[in-house]
Specification:
Length: about 270
């Protein structure tokens, strides 16, 4: 990828603001790829991504912009990216928040007071602009690395009950993408050996009407089983498999032996 001409390198580090990033990304517009993405992300009338607008950039191009902007990109510039009409620019904003959060969440900084304060600022911003993550890729590339990781870390915002309140609020929202956040954030908690978040929100969303949530819940249950305990997954399935949507069940049992998958499918 060519250098970001609109950004000025000073002292070996890219100095930029939101407007420069947006102008640069707009300069990469690819109308052919744009049509492909609009179809893939279901932007037609009545579809879940209706009205979303694309520049036609591929994810590696957006990640390159994020790397060029750097983790020192001003936090107060990020909202302009998140409020952009362009899907890829919003993704850039969310990935900048991811990069900033991960830098502040290393083992060395987990309990550092200043790091905690800055992580909380990022989480607060992420929640404030959550509806701007208005397609599944924007959620799936960011929520577990910010909100999911935050669930496992010290915070000045509140205790575990407060964290549950935050996720319950997302789960109860009329916004599909906030609902998806509440379950997909458990990808990180399951990776770190805590199944409680996945099990709680899988149960809450068990009877969700949207296929995208069926896939997300089944996916997170599968990850919980793989990362934490297949016995816990089987226990959940014994209780709920008979009422789970078939897609949800199919995703949840995907890594089981074929013979066992056949037995579970008979229950739905």
């Amino acid at each position: 990828m060519k250098q970001m001409e609109v950004l000025c390198k000073q002292g070996g580090q890219v100095k930029s603001n939101a407007r420069q990033i947006i102008e640069y990304m707009e300069s990469l517009r690819n109308d052919g790829q744009r049509k492909v993405l609009m179809g893939f992300f279901k932007t037609g009338p009545g579809e879940y991504g209706f009205g979303d607008e694309f520049l036609g950039l591929k994810v590696p191009q957006t990640r390159e912009v994020v790397r060029a902007a750097g983790i020192d990109f001003p936090l107060n510039e990020v909202p302009e990216l998140l409020m952009s009409r362009w899907h890829e620019v919003r993704l850039c904003g969310f990935l900048i928040l991811v990069a900033k959060f991960e830098k502040l969440a290393t083992t060395r900084l987990e309990s550092n007071a200043e790091a905690i304060k800055k992580r909380d600022e990022i989480v607060t911003m992420y929640l404030q602009y959550a509806e701007q993550a208005n397609n599944w890729d924007l959620v799936d590339l960011s929520v577990h690395k910010i909100l999911g990781h935050w669930l496992l870390l010290p915070t000045d915002l509140g205790d575990r009950d407060y964290k549950i309140k935050v996720l319950d609020g997302l789960a109860a929202s009329p916004c599909l993408w906030k609902q998806r956040m509440s379950i997909v954030c458990s990808w990180k908690t399951s990776q770190q050996g805590d199944p409680s978040w996945c099990l709680r929100y899988a149960e809450i969303h068990l009877h969700h009407q949207h296929d995208l949530m069926h896939k997300a819940v089944g996916w997170m249950l599968r990850e919980m089983g793989k990362r934490v305990s297949m016995d816990l997954l089987r226990e959940f399935l014994r209780q709920y498999a008979h009422e789970m949507p078939r897609t949800m069940l199919r995703y949840a049992i995907e890594k089981m032996p074929e013979k066992e998958r056949q037995e579970w499918r008979k229950t739905s």
